[in-house]
Specification:
Blueprint (H helix, E strand, L loop, with lengths): L3 E2 L13 H10 L4 E4 L8 H11 L2 E12 L2 E8 L6 H11 L2 H14 L5 H6 L10 H10 L6 H9 L14 H10 L3 E4 L9 H13 L4 E6 L4 H14 L2 E5 L31
Parallel strand pairs: 1-2, 2-3, 5-6, 6-7
Antiparallel strand pairs: 3-4, 4-5
The chain binds adenosine monophosphate (AMP) and manganese (II) ion (3 copies).
One manganese (II) ion binds next to loops.
Amino acid sequence: MLNIDLHSHSRVSDGVLSPSELVLRAHGNGVKMLALTDHDEVGGVSEARKTAAGLGIELVSGVEVSITWAGTSIHIVGLHVDENDPVLVERLFQNRTGRMDRAKRMGERFAALGVQGAYEGALGYVTNPNLISRKHFARFLVDSGVCPTISSAFERFLKDGGPAYVRHQWATLAEAVQWIREAGGIAVVAHPGRYKLSDVALHAFLDEFRQLGGIGIEVVTGSHSPDQYLYFARLANRYGFLASVGSDFHAPAESPVDVGRLPDFPCPVEPVWRDWR
Ligand code: AMP
Ligand code: MN
Ligand code: MN
Ligand code: MN
């Protein structure tokens, strides 16, 4: 199968590589088609596209939109969105506002838990002034010796419902799908196996997503176990969703899967790129 990776981050959100460095790394790993999908940001796409063109990589303009559905934080990936669409850019900007206030409140939670200076510490890792995420707190916790690993920082403090987690009201599912479609893109559910939803709730979510015009789900991702690859491949076929693949790469030596280093689909599926050119 062609080496395709349709979910990755740069320092324009909470990755650590510049868009160009990310594309170079993908190229070194043999990637032929790469989507840059920064959180609520398309600002890195044009740089990535330029670098990709010189290397013969097909760059897919993407975005990972944060939403709140039934009180749960969920991510919707948009692929082939027009990164120059001013309406999309403004909508994403609006969805990012509130991150600083939330981060300050997380800092207060940390202080109450005995970890001082977490907000200021996390700020030190921020590379886009209006995109502070839990990942930045996790990097601070690891580098300051509070937690041994990023995943343990999430497990102990930052995971949904964790002691330092502050819930945030992001866009609605309907908004995210509409924004992506109106910018010419297709909507894909990011890492569906990561949400703490019951089976009933997951199915209700997927039904609603499909009714709104969503057409795909990630099947093979850095956030899924091999068992989940198969589970979500079958689920995609059952629902008639297209299947996507993406590492969710953020940083060397941090992300569980490097860019372009995922296995093939575990069984026949209709891939999201089926109808692309
Ligand atoms: P936020 O948008 O601030 O809620 O933070 C989301 C960020 O946290 C994304 O980069 C996720 O990939 C990351 N994240 C969420 N859960 C985990 C986890 N269990 N381990 C590592 N990173 C996570
Ligand atoms: Mn992230
Ligand atoms: Mn995500
Ligand atoms: Mn992601």
